[in-house]
């Protein structure tokens, strides 16, 4: 007897993480239950001429992040989720901030409450920016509640960990079976350069890039990898901006260290020249690490093709250009050092990687699927439920018109942030429909998923987050394993 299907997507060119095949997809109970030639269904969608990929998995987005005072940024899981669905992303991993005077558990509770309005499926990374014994004692409970990744910053006044504190985080992750995601830039080098630049009257947004050159990122990346190697903890280096930094990751991978690298669309299509626009317009392109040169963008594509960089996330940040939560919060004459860092991109990520990658012939379709869905899902313990088109997986699907040309602007993005740094960029290839667990969530740009359509994704133990036993002299493994 065949399973009765709720939905059949027929005659599609289906791109999975492994290959591209002409077939039908049969869906029941929100999951993919048949592939190939599938039986009768309550609803049929003819996808002839379209490409079907898994829904995007964006494992680095600041959506509904609880801010000090239990406040919020400009983007919620409801509004960011709307943008995600419009751009073909169905799952996101946001962040739990560490908030003064509140326990980690309180922030998790508040984030889960906010998540009830999400339009997409979601999970969280736990940020540790104050690795006190009290905080670290709470981490095992947080991990056990399905927050199986910790985030560390090696820079920013309010967030940065010194090496000893970072080691505490690596140890806690190792003990709990969690991945560590890390922002790698040298705090003191940036501080020193910033002081010199400001003293010299070089205050505009373009000097943001001058304050944090590649070597600052490369040094911190090498140091983070070495410390993770010492404890045997798996790590992912967030937002790698250039090939020189990716080389540090490649070298470590070659000697067997469990380290992965992520990049973001801003390092593939933006450059430091964008920050050199008149007045404070350049502030809209400021993120850290800073976008580099055009040549560096090609360097990143090489690293993607080599497999050194195997995830592209958005690092969607919830700063407006002006007003509340604005880049101009410190006034129109603020120096680069006072302007918040980060750019929005949860909706832009999939179309940009499709267009710049697949349409321009830099990568294959199955590679696109690995970069934007399958690899992030595996790395953060969301597979096999998320990230691929396979029997038993959630029916999170995107139907693409590979020939459609769209010029990006803020209305197209459908997020709450008041601008997009990708305005004016023409992309070839566009998502025409998105399905979340078998339900149509977006059609022709209209987001149909209501608030609350999304679900929390607790993450259990998984292979890639298991610590390495191969640590120097064996002592560390015995002591903290
Ligand atoms: Zn981030």
Q: CATH topology, what is it called?
A: TIM Barrel
The CATH architecture category equals: Alpha-Beta Barrel
Count of the domains: 1
Which structural category do the helix and sheet elements fall into? Answer: alpha/beta
Bound molecules: zinc ion
The biggest beta sheet reads: 9 strands, mixed
Mean pLDDT: 95
CATH homologous group name = Metal-dependent hydrolases
Distance N terminus to C terminus? 49 Å
Large-scale geometry = globular
Radius of gyration: 22 Å
Helix content: 25-40%
Total helices: the number is 14
Uncertain parts: none
CATH class: Alpha Beta
Quick one: how many beta strands? 17
Question: How would you characterize the overall build of this protein?
Answer:
Helix 3 (133-144) runs parallel beside helix 4. The strands form 2 sheets. Strands 1, 2, 3, 4, 5, 14, 15, 16 and 17 form a 9-stranded mixed beta sheet that branches. The chain has an 8-stranded parallel beta sheet with strand order 6-7-8-9-10-11-12-13, with helices on both faces. The relative contact order is 0.17. It has a single domain, classed as Metal-dependent hydrolases (TIM Barrel). The protein has 481 residues and is α/β, with parallel strands linked by helices. The N and C termini lie far apart (49 Å). The protein has helices at 77-86, 104-115, 133-144, 163-176, 187-199, 207-210, 214-231, 243-254, 266-269, 294-306, 349-359, 365-379, 410-413, 475-480; strands at residues 5-15, 20-28, 31-36, 41-46, 51-54, 56-58, 89-96, 121-127, 149-153, 179-183, 235-237, 259-263, 309-312, 397-407, 426-436, 439-443, 446-447. Zinc ion binds next to loops.
């Amino acid at each position: 007897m065949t399973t009765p299907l709720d939905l059949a997507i027929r005659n599609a060119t289906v791109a999975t993480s492994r290959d591209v095949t002409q077939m039908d997809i049969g869906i029941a109970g929100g999951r993919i239950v048949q592939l190939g030639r599938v039986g009768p269904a309550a609803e049929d969608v003819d996808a002839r001429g379209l490409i079907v990929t898994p829904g995007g998995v964006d494992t680095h987005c600041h959506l509904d992040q609880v801010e000090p005072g239990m406040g919020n940024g400009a983007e919620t899981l409801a509004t960011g989720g709307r943008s995600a669905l419009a751009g073909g992303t169905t799952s996101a991993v946001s962040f739990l901030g560490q908030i003064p005077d509140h326990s980690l558990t309180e922030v998790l509770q508040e984030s889960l409450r906010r998540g009830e309005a999400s339009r997409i499926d979601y999970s969280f990374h736990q940020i540790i920016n104050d690795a006190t014994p009290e905080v670290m004692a709470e981490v095992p409970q947080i991990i056990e509640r399905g927050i199986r990744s910790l985030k560390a910053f090696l820079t920013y006044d309010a967030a940065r960990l010194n090496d000893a504190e970072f080691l505490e985080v690596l140890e806690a992750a190792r003990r709990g079976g969690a991945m560590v995601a890390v922002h790698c830039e040298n705090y003191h080098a940036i501080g020193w350069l910033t002081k010199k630049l400001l003293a010299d009257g070089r205050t505009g947004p373009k000097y943001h890039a001058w304050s944090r050159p590649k070597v600052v990122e490369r040094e911190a990346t090498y140091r983070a990898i070495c410390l993770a190697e010492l404890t045997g903890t798996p790590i992912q280096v967030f937002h790698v901006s250039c090939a020189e930094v990716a080389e540090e990751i490649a070298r470590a991978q070659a000697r067997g260290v469990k380290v992965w690298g992520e990049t973001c669309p801003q390092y593939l299509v933006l450059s430091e020249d964008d920050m050199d626009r008149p007045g404070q317009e350049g502030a809209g392109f400021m993120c850290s690490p800073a976008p580099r040169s055009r040549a560096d963008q090609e360097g990143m594509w090489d690293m993607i093709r080599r497999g050194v960089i195997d995830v592209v996330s958005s690092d969607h940040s919830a700063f407006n250009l002006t007003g509340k939560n604005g880049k101009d919060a410190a006034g129109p004459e603020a120096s680069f050092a006072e302007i918040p860092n980060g750019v929005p991109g949860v909706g832009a990520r999939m179309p940009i990687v499709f267009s710049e990658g697949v349409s321009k012939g830099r990568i294959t379709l199955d590679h696109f699927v690995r970069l934007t869905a399958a690899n992030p899902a595996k790395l953060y313990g969301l597979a096999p439920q998320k990230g691929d088109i396979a029997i038993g997986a959630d029916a999170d699907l995107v139907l693409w018109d590979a020939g459609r040309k769209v010029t990006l602007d803020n209305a197209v993005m459908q997020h709450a942030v008041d601008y997009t740094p990708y305005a004016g960029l023409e992309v070839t290839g566009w998502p025409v429909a998105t399905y979340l667990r078998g339900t149509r969530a977006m059609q022709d740009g209209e987001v149909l998923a209501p608030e609350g359509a999304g679900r929390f994704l607790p993450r259990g133990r998984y292979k890639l987050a298991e610590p390495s036993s191969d640590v120097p002299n064996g002592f560390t493994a015995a002591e903290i394993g």
